[in-house]
Amino acid sequence: MAINDDQSKTCVVLGGRSFIGRHLVVRLLTLGNWIVRVADSTQSLQLDPSESKFDSPLKRAISTGRASYAHVDFRHKTTIVNAIEGSEVVFYVNDIDSFNQDFYVGYTIIVQGAKYVINACRQCKVKRLIYCSTTDVVIDNSHDICSGNETLLYPSKFKDLYTELKAQAEAYVLLSNDIDGLLTCAIRPSSVFGPGDKVLLPSLIEVAKSGWAKFIIGSDQTVSDFTYVENVAHALICAEAALTHHIVIASGKVFFITNFEPTRSWQFALCMLEGLGYYRPYIKLPGVVSQSIVFLIKWMHSNMNSRDLKNASVQNIVQLMSHTRTYNCSAAERHIEYSPVVSLDDGITLTVKSFTHLAKDYPSTRPGDLIEQSKVEELLGSGEVSDILLWKDERRSFICFLVVAFMYYWFCECERRIISSTAQILLLIIVVLFGYARLSPQVKLSSKVSISRTLPCFEVSEMCMRSCVRTIGSLWNGAVHLAKSLAQGNDWSLFFKIVISIHLFKLLMVNNFPTSIGVGLAFSFVFFFVYEQYDVEIDGLVGITFEILRQFIIYVTSRLPMPTPSPLYINNSKSIKPKDQR
Fold this sequence. Notes:
Layout: E1 9-14, H1 19-31, E2 34-40, H2 52-64, E3 67-71, H3 77-84, E4 89-92, H4 103-123, E5 128-132, E6 145-148, H5 161-175, E7 183-189, E8 192-193, H6 200-209, E9 215-217, E10 223-224, E11 227-228, H7 229-245, H8 247-250, E12 254-257, E13 263-264, H9 265-275, E14 283-285, H10 287-303, H11 309-322, E15 325-327, H12 330-335, H13 344-354, H14 367-370, H15 375-379, H16 384-389, H17 394-413, H18 418-439, H19 445-453, H20 462-488, H21 492-510, H22 513-533, H23 535-557, H24 567-575
Parallel strand pairs: 1-2, 1-4, 2-3, 4-5, 5-7, 6-15, 7-12, 8-11, 9-14
Antiparallel strand pairs: 10-13
Helix pairs in contact: 1-2, 1-7, 3-4, 4-5, 6-11, 9-13, 10-11, 17-22
């Protein structure tokens, strides 16, 4: 449909190649009455052929002259002025795509950049400036928000650096309203998702791929508001129209934007993940516990100067799932006439379709099949012992733990002799079985036969015996080689290892044998489960510890005197001469 250029409005989308910016550009071009200038930090417009929904309309608009591209550096006012000169509307979208954790860079781009944008708009006589903020600017990560409205104040402590900088930029935009003819307003979308998302859904997928995939983090009753990205683009356009026709009502104001469909956070996450082939978590983990663990991991990584994107994703999802975050959008309904154009269910469907390249490639939907075998599971043999120690079946593992605890108490804590303890526990078992048989006379012979058939067979195969003999022989040969190395007296590192191992064995097993057994049994039911969840962190910490010990051993051994050869060895070496010298 041809549009008269005299009826078209010229606008600039600052951050037009970002997640929200791309959808806004497509929607503006679809409306047909806009001449769009896309401004972003890349030197030239790079159209992505794999994202036809974004780039095809833009490509066609560029070819017809209804769209153009301008390079902009938010750290330099001149580039901003060149980008927005001649336009009457500026949509300012600087989302997390271009942000890193460097404070100086973040401040210059987000806060100082907002000041430059405002001054450039006033200099170029721009009439309307609409800023895309976020609901995170009113979140403090310690309180729930239920049906919050625009009267909420900024918290004393923000959730992260990016949010704090966004709040400062938003405040500058709102304070500049009605100065030199510039009208401003801002929108605060909540938990934006959709095709091209680089934060929310990728974080969920990272958590699903990690050891946290088994856990429902926090309460599964927490409720949150989510916003499909096209609804955010629609809200920005509604805000511009309100500034045009309802100046007093909308100018200088901020509006919450959601899908008008508060939903349980985990239900939303599961709809996304199950659509991509990831299975449903089945263990509930309280939010306080998960937050404490994540805080410990974050502290450890900060002290190790490590940047692990997986743990950052876990931290973001823990924060999202642990608190209720719902917002009242009645002000946006009344003042800028906003209502969602895409429902939450349709938005989830469209988002899942766009992320098929991240889907899990497993045909089966059983949790046991979808869980990738972990390192500790391979170490434990992937059998019944592994299932018990890793708490695959909580009821079974708990019963085994009680049995082990009872056996430890009976044999170690009651201070009985091993023969008397064994005899008493056998007597107790016989009494229990006899009493059960007397109290349950209705048990049929067939059931007894079936029970007898399930009793373990104590036959040992020839292959098993050969394997045991080979193992014993290998251990013996290893011990002999170890003794020979120690007898030569040249390997101080091996000497220290043996001495420390024997000393630890003496401390733990000889002097405190019962206590060591109890601690070891309890430790096994906890350590393997924890290690499966944090194998990367624990391996890194152990690696650092061993490296420190290795460097210490090298330091100590380098200062020990070199072993002096015995006189007998010197005389023998002198008596042996080469053949050509005889």
